[in-house]
Fold this protein.
Amino acid sequence: MPIQWIEHKGAKILLIDVSNLENDHVTLNAHLETLIALLKTEPKDSVLAVADLRNTNLNNNALMVLMRNASLAAPYFCKSALVIESNNARSIVLDSFNMIIKRVPKRFDDLDAAKAWLVNDIIQPPVDDRHTLKQKQPVG
């Protein structure tokens, strides 16, 4: 499934798997429309997300699809990562997203590294010890 919730080290992450689409920008667009619909059910600035774009060509059509949807999705992400092959051309193209969104996803070559980075500073809720049974103190 291209858009799905996964769990990593106790944290909920939205996995956007649009890898291996090569030049299929129509399918990419359909997946991103599904993503936007899903995000609208979440509070803004609340979603940890990782997008896997490996083996998907960033041709003009794909870039237009990504740019059109980036500004719609970005407000829902509190932290996001992108798994993509690194090369200078892709870096230049992806750096241009700074003009569209305020927090550009951190880039990784490896999905596991991206997931680890997403959850590395998640603060676990404090332990509520009000419900802990306390031993009675001896009288006298």
